[in-house]
Design goal:
By secondary structure, the chain is α+β, with helices and mostly antiparallel strands. It folds into 2 domains: 120 residues, no CATH class; 35 residues. It is built from 6 helices and 7 strands; from the N terminus they run βαβαβββαββααα. Strands 2-3-4-5-6 form a 5-stranded mixed β-sheet. A two-stranded antiparallel ribbon has the order 1-7.
């Protein structure tokens, strides 16, 4: 098991040697993910186990983090926990990827060494919601508070009745 996470890995070699990677990656090191966050502080916990099942080279493990996304209702920060299980089958060609068991997603390795951050970042991006929102009704509460304030103001300054002129005409007999 590696204590310090490598920048590049050789997935096939790690699968042959039953390698294990465990550690943390700063969220700020993942450029595509950082662009989507309000705050890129913190780290991502990574635990990957490489191995083989017959001819299938595989990667299994878990990624955990808490990300600061922007709520699409109120535009404030919302903490979003990520806890995703990884099951990847290492493939060099599309044909190999098509033959993977159903529970495995393909990890395409055209080159011998690939950036570890790319694997982690791809898995996290796949697990992010399209429209992150608070669990509570953040906008509904805000709108209700504004509407209640507006209703109080309307009660104080009641608008004039448009038919008040007709009532005056009826009393005077000018018809």
């Amino acid at each position: 098991m590696l204590s310090r996470l490598p920048e590049f890995i050789d997935p096939l070699h790690l699968a042959d040697t039953r390698g294990e990677i465990k550690g943390e990656i700063p969220i700020g090191n993942l450029a595509r993910l950082s662009e989507m966050l309000i705050n890129d502080s913190g780290s991502i916990s990574v635990h990957l186990i490489f191995g083989r099942e017959g001819k299938l080279a595989k990667v299994e493990g878990r990624i955990q983090a808490t990300l600061n996304l922007q709520c699409q209702n109120c535009l404030e920060a919302v903490e979003w926990p990520i806890d995703c299980e990884i099951k990847l089958g290492i493939a060099n060609t599309i044909e190999q990827a098509d033959r993977l068991p159903e529970e495995y997603e393909p990890l395409m390795t055209e080159e011998e060494k690939i950036p570890l951050n790319n694997i982690i970042e791809d898995e996290i991006l796949l697990n992010l919601p399209a429209f992150p929102k608070h669990e509570h009704q953040c906008v509904t509460l805000e709108v209700n508070n504004k509407l209640n304030g507006k209703m109080v103001a309307e009660e104080i300054s009641a608008p004039e009745n448009p038919f008040a002129i007709l009532a005056k005409l009826k009393k005077t007999g000018d018809s």
